[in-house]
Inverse folding.
């Protein structure tokens, strides 16, 4: 098993993730509660080695093992919000938005919007409150455009290790 | 502990999730590998009861317990793609896009786009291949606009049970 | 040779509404259940004359006397939908949309959209069903953009007779 | 006849409207001047009970019984105006616009515009005066886009109680 | 109580132009140098009467009799420029733009732009100078979008009197 | 007086217009009915020479001498319409639109629209008829966006000969 | 001098360009006619080695050594054209556009446009001819938007080897 | 061989480039390292004359003879960025952007954007740094929209002398 993967080296961080780490991630993407002993057996390693590697991946922010609920099925309203920032403030805005608890996803993008965020709120009143009070509490925003979700069709986490 | 939560009843599915289920979800959102015995003790239930409820939540698609990797740190390129469909085909398009393995997120929305998807690809060549070959393999698409991710700032799953 | 040009009046129907009719309309805009005797006294006419004029205004579509409910307070989701049509089909599309029971308002406009409609649905699933099934059942539509209502702030009918 | 309607409970206010109230609303949506005695007979209640319920619905803003005139047939020009606000001012702007007498409809929305309003004016000069003087008298507006009405095709109030 | 409502005429000025004036305008739209004696004979009036009416029409700004050159054939570059103004300044901006000699057409509009102007310049350098120096010398402009003309296909003045 | 003007030679047609022609055009731009004798005196030529040159300019489409009425003051509604065409049909569309009598201006442009036209109609009904029946009678149009005129602020023809 | 440059390895082709090649490229970016003997001396290699490496770089399409003229100074009109394609045809369209001699730059992009091209034409007539005849001769194009150049401010080739 | 070329005279600078200069440019567009002796023979001139003319063309900014590398093949990320400026600052912004070393192309345009620039950066992090730090270091920018390149399909310099 190759421990280096030069073809994937687009991001410097990426080069720190070995092929073995990727195998472990793949097992956990399928089932986050898979016992480490099972993964250890499959990869020919000790459970301690698996645990140590998972801890390192989690500690460095490469991996989370979490319960992911479907907000729609819990009765919540979600929306994607495209954000355009004042010149020179997009990273600052993104980081401030990331500190809002009702924002679960923040990404800096190229194109029509500078930052894309996903928010989870109770209902339309909550979305209005978010758009008119919470989101503008962050300075440096020029304009926003919200896309309320009507139905969540797919949410998977099995990528990147095929 | 109330088992019903009438204030959250926006979606009929939502009413099937009890306050107790929400507590369990909250524990797993914080740490997907938290031992059921720990959750059982905290909520005053047996481990078997917790396990049964988690299994029901997972079986009904309300919850996944999974390893979530940061694609950027694995050296991948991600993009959000806004999709506009031919009239009357948006649900069909969303479901077909959900079947593509390189698409990890599909949501039907109101506004400028009909469907929003997230894709994870190797690099710019992979994004071009996705936009020009894979995505159009789905019929009923009228136009698309891709937003390549420059940096992922926040990705959390702790919502909906506060 | 005529020296006057009555055709320049903006709406031919407008000229059929007398100042007296406008006074009656104003009374009913304030309170649709105002007794005709009260209006008759105020305008120095008989109740029968008021009744006859109201009937004529209602019969010609100039006036409706109706209960207007606030959909938000009844727990419904409303949305404005901007519609762009295939060339030469905007009037036909507008008339077909007007026949859908879940559409309560249809207007032909100039600008970015050809037709603007308002719809009242049960919830997000109802809005998706409307956008993906009901609305496209009307032929000649090229693209649509929905604006879900977050809060209704004003809905009044006292205009046009000041 | 059930007095509760849990399936419609999207807005907390909505839950205060009983199925019986909805029946009364439906009668008045068809004809705002229908005598209460007629409604009372149909629903097996006293006229006083109907009157009391109507008064409560009107008092709480759930229902208006009004004369609704067709502005086009009265010779007026109408327009929808999409309004984009400065960050954090959309509710304030909506409420200020609602205080302008030439504005008959104000709604807070998600999407390309923050607030949608409908205005009724005398003619093109009146629309220009509205857009350039009246509307900007409200602070916090960033940009506006007017859609002049060319023809009103449908205006109905029979919804929400089917 | 007046039963007629002359204010509904769309433009008050429009009512001041008699059918006879319209006939005279029509003759001059066809040929601006047509001798008044010829028009007088055709309409059964004296040359003096025609001359007086033309003078009144010109004096009140209803009519110009002018040489209209095709800028393209004279070797000039033309462009339409859509202008968006700061709130409440569109009339002021339009009037200031009208005072620039290189602007030959200014109109206040509804829709995506607040003001549309046409400019005639020497070449691309002149257009850049106009967009970057002359046009912004007018305060209250928020953004502009220029549409350089590639070919003038029709320019006629025979309307409004058919 | 130079007869050639190399600095203006952007269009080949432009080179056929001498500096003397430009002087004559300038006189007529100021007043289309200026007697040729007056122009002849000012330029040191015979009236016959002026008449011959004007006839040549008019015959080659470089100049029109016409009565230009203000449509607004005649009680008409005008609108600019931006037209986008099917690929490869913009010149054909422009020429077909130029044949419609209610279209008084047609220009091929670069940018968001392929063709810009100006139309003069009676009122809002006429504009709707134009947009939905007359304009689409021309094949090859993909989409249109109308900008109704609210007020004409400047319309001058004194350019190109300074 | 390192011959490998792992930090630059985003594209697999990129890894074939050694640090030495990059040095040579840098010399030629500054002056395309710099004698190979001069470069050889500076880098401590033989002229033959430099020549061989340049030939390999040119042969593999990594480098061109060319005269680059400023089209504006040669009296030409340039424009960028944003192209949107029918689904699944963007690569095919880009390659077909690349075969047109009046197109000097073709790039596949993410965002509002699928393909961006630069064209060099004689004048406005040439641009219209290009947009209406040449460009649509390529099948699979849905819409285009041209940005005529008003002034070229910078055109340099010194990048990528710093 | 004609030394003047009146048909190309759109820009005053253009008239300074003789037909002979154009022939020389054409030879160098094909191969920037073509020996001057070869060009001299082909055009019937001395090598010194060719060298003098090339020097003059280079000195006046009409021609560069340079190595042009393909940034994609060197492993770089490129993007076009559309820039909209504050009123009256587009030339100033363009000139300031031209001074940034990571910007290799700057052009002032008409249309949706005021300035178009091309940038060459290391990777997505570099693009974010450019968009959020370097580009806004230039004052007078109102908004930007980046189009990351997915694949460079054509880059040629053989134009303008056919």
């Amino acid at each position: 098993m190759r421990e280096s993967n030069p073809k994937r080296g687009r991001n410097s961080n990426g080069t720190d993730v070995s092929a073995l780490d990727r195998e472990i991630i793949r097992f956990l993407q399928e089932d986050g509660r898979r016992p480490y002993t099972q993964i250890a057996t499959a990869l020919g390693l000790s459970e301690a080695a698996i645990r140590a590697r998972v801890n390192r991946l989690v500690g460095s922010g490469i991996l989370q093992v979490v319960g992911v609920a479907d907000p729609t099925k819990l009765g919540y309203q979600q929306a994607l919000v495209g954000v355009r920032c004042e010149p020179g403030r997009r990273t600052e805005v993104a980081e401030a938005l990331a500190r809002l608890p009702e924002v679960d996803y923040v990404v800096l993008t190229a194109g029509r919007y500078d930052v894309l965020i996903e928010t989870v709120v109770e209902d339309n009143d909550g979305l209005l409150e978010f758009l008119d009070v919470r989101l503008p509490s962050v300075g440096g925003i020029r304009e926003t455009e919200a896309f309320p979700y009507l139905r969540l069709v797919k949410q998977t986490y099995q990528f990147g290790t095929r």
Chain C touches chain F at residues 5, 7-8, 10-11, 84, 87-91, 108, 110-112, 114, 142 (CB under 8 Å). Chain C has a mean pLDDT of 88.
